[in-house]
């Protein structure tokens, strides 16, 4: 018997020993000596000197009580955090400042002390407050990228995608809503992101037909608030085909069309991250094989989806990455929304900026999120 087990056993025996009559105590001592191999006088002395066990004392946290533990403050913080789809503390800090007016219109005005706390709370404190309720939803899907060999040697490889600072250079990829099987036809989302501003556009097709993907890329180009200057994709045949190649390169002002290296997923780090934050976290990994879902997805992507993510969801861009000893240190810029990055860009004309500002004044992130949830519920109701 280990020392810890003996201690627990003695505690249990002591409780019985205190309540037992004389004859009962004799039997308990016999039992204790037999189990722990104690001398009888030693056992009597232990039971005599043993004190009543006390419950463990919880150590009080040193320092003053946190001023952010008020239920009213935590309720506002959680409401915005859930509506923004569970962002990290650094991004949520910017969202609080950006969404506060819309929150008061939607949910009523807040006291001045709560507003002051929301504006002064740090990202680290936000993470500490939300840690008990933060849930990570992870899933595992299937890779459906098939190589397009026809134009493989005509489309150049590009590995310095992170160096683009001018809006118009996009990364593109497809997200398959196939569930656990790649058989048959199902909905596919074309996901695109601008490297300089993080502006995203999504479109849905039924299957991976070259013509359908081609038409959606044309629609994305018409929707962008800046001209398309370059398109970078992986080696999948749905994007590396003659329709898209001819459309981008055989025009009066050709668009730079490049691809990543085979089996180097990090070459498309921007779009791979958006595949998770903008598609999988919202729609999951269910199979969408009902053709009606494609129309619902495009209705969602072209309206509330693009407005919510581009005007109200900030992101951080990698500024510098260096190795110090055995550690890799990454430095990011301050979180900003794609809309804010466009306003700061010197390559965007003032006419476009004024139009975006007027559009921003008419939007409410809480109303957009409510409509998005309703449409996603409709999509899932039609899914198998």
Provide an overview of this structure.
The structure is a single chain. By secondary structure, this protein is of the alpha/beta class. It has three domains: 3-49, no CATH class; 71-133, no CATH class; 161-382, Ribonuclease H-like superfamily/Ribonuclease H (Nucleotidyltransferase, domain 5, 2-Layer Sandwich), CATH 3.30.420. Helix content is 49%, strand content 11%. The chain has helices at residues 3-19, 22-36, 40-49, 71-83, 89-107, 112-120, 123-130, 210-223, 242-249, 269-283, 291-312, 338-344, 350-361, 365-382, and strands spanning 169-176, 187-194, 200-206, 230-233, 256-259, 318-324, 327-332. It has a five-stranded mixed beta sheet, with helices on both faces. Strands 6-7 form a two-stranded antiparallel ribbon. Helix 1 packs antiparallel against helix 2 (22-36). The longest helix has 22 residues, at 291-312. The chain starts with a helix and ends with a helix. Residues 137-153 have low confidence and may be disordered.
